[in-house]
Amino acid sequence: MDDESDDLCGLCGLPGANKMALWTGGGVYWPGEQRPDSQFVHSDCEHAETERAFTALTPEQRRATLRSIWR
Hints:
Layout lengths: L18 E2 L19 E2 L1 H14 L2 H11 L2
Antiparallel strand pairs: 1-2
């Protein structure tokens, strides 16, 4: 990493991000899931945001999202 700010988490903004965000690899997000604004995230922040977005959806919304991915 060339700069001290390179390891800032794209979700919480704090230093020490320990992995590349899903979007850097073409990841899939639940509707309403916050996407990081940098390429690095804390794995705990990414997990918490995925869980938050998932639980905010109704079962029907989850099924519709999964159907749209696996067509």
